[in-house]
Write a structure and sequence with these properties.
The complex is a heterodimer of chains A (about 110) and B (about 120). Chain A is mainly β. Chain A is about 0% helix and about 55% strand. Chain A starts with a strand and ends with a strand. Chain B has strands at about 5, 10-15, 20-25, 30-40, 40-50, 55, 65-70, 75-80, 90-95, 105, 110-115. Classes of the chains: A mainly beta (about 110), B mainly beta (about 120).
Amino acid sequence: GQQLNQSPQSMFIQEGEDVSMNCTSSSIFNTWLWYKQDPGEGPVLLIALYKAGELTSNGRLTAQFGITRKDSFLNISASIPSDVGIYFCAGLPNYGGSQGNLIFGKGTKLSVKP
Amino acid sequence: DARVTQTPRHKVTEMGQEVTMRCQPILGHNTVFWYRQTMMQGLELLAYFRNRAPLDDSGMPKDRFSAEMPDATLATLKIQPSEPRDSAVYFCASGLRTGRNTGELFFGEGSRLTVL
């Protein structure tokens, strides 16, 4: 089935550093979404992208919809301890019969050293 | 503050017992999804509904799992009989699907199931 490759799987960073993660696919997507999941909670939608090339910010977070429509990245600037968590990318495939079913990446676990 | 509500938040049960998890989607949303999350498999889609009709439950073990939407404000996921391998966090998510399908989903806080 359709899969998203999300990388890196995990990362440790120093507080104040910038973070970058990405998702790639072999197929075209119509929508890219980025979620964050805190321990013991459900994923929370951070940013939604709808057009190829679109660049959207949400505070210190910036995400882009790749021009080829097969990838997306998420950047976090000046990381702080509360950025710790698991970040998931999700995409809505561009093929008939998807019925609006999102495909999720495996997640990037972010740990920040205070 | 609209949110997806799931109950119970935590459930510990013994193998062979029936487990029912409930979800109240965000008012006005017309799609409901059930996901299972484990360390090994990540987020797995079990079933989803649009306008209360089941569209896909191919990710769900049919012999023991069942999902229903008795009305627009309630979705249920039932496991009977439960097994230790069912231990996971089960998430419900809802969304609004219209002519312009944005794909956005909003998740509940999950039901953590432990089957002994």
